[in-house]
Hints:
By secondary structure, this protein is mostly helical. It is 72% helix and 0% strand. The protein contains 18 helices and no strands. The protein has helices at residues 2-19, 29-47, 55-67, 76-88, 91-113, 117-128, 136-146, 148-152, 156-167, 179-182, 189-205, 207-230, 243-269, 273-292, 304-307, 310-317, 324-348, 350-353. Helix 11 (189-205) packs parallel to helix 14 (273-292) and helix 14 (273-292) crosses helix 16 (310-317). The two termini are 20 Å apart.
Amino acid sequence: MFLYLLFLLLFTFSTLEVAGIKFRSVRNFYQYTYITFIILFFIISSLRWETGTDWSTYYDYFIYVKQHNDIGWMEPLFGLLNKINAHYFCYQMQIMEIAALSIIPIGFRYQKLSPYPLMTLFIWYCVIFAHIFPVRQTIAISLVVFGWKYIELRQFKKYLMTCLIAILFHYSAIIAVPLYWLWHVQLSAKVISLLIICFAVLAVASTNTISNILFAVGGSFFEEKLSTYMGDADNNFGMQFTVREVLIRGIINRSIILFTALFLLNDKRQKDTRLNAIINLYAFSFLLFIIITPLSVALGRLTIFTDMSQALLIPYIFTLKMNRFTLTILLSILLIYFLYRFQGVINNYHDYYIPYKSFLSV
């Protein structure tokens, strides 16, 4: 129930923010509200117990590290984090640190990059629970998004270092390195649309072409990983949707967001380099999703790094001049659309999220 309450509160405050409602008695009201929600997310995430995906996997790994001298089979920095907490602290401390690493860096960067931070927070929550139920990949995602500012400032060394740290938490973060060169590219709406169509045809025509490219680029590492994920390509990994359903739903969702943004913001992005970069990231995410999802649902997780750009892209639509009636219609559409997506996220792994359990009640 509290998940829906958070949904309602976030939408309410993001609506007030977009509508330009002022609170003269409290300066920086929306900034304080944003920080309050970030703290709330952190607390909820830190207090959880036996709640969230892969709980047993991570807990068993923590016990393994505690009983052995090595860091086990997960990535080096995540293994080191487990080793330190297993030998000097406890698993609840581990949960708190993962929550901090997964929520604070991306929360900080979102506030700096978004035209409407509370709306960004609302979208982030709807699509991935704002990392309240983190895994090691969410740490990598948070660090990558934090590093986007370095791309904007053309500080390659700082961005590369951020990516390297993220990779040491989850190897999938390697997909974020090329984003540095994608950020400042200026592509027409027609080119973006044609690229999506061409990649869709390529993905349908020959999945072997894609796998061969990955083998050539990544060598034995990608070959091992890809072979593992493709060993049962029709496996839906506990989700309530088949691979085909995941692909269709993903294409529909991404088409709605991308083509709406291109239609409404195409002129604006010619003058706004940040908006253009965000559209580039989301278009890249769309292309990547079309290519790899037919290979394996698990590989679809690679898109999540650039998928995070949607939380920045959609608020830009509300920077356009519009009357109150149009604003109300758009907000109503936004509410219905993200309520539908939010319900889908909950239903996808319902038993992992509901009921919420805290270590205080164990």
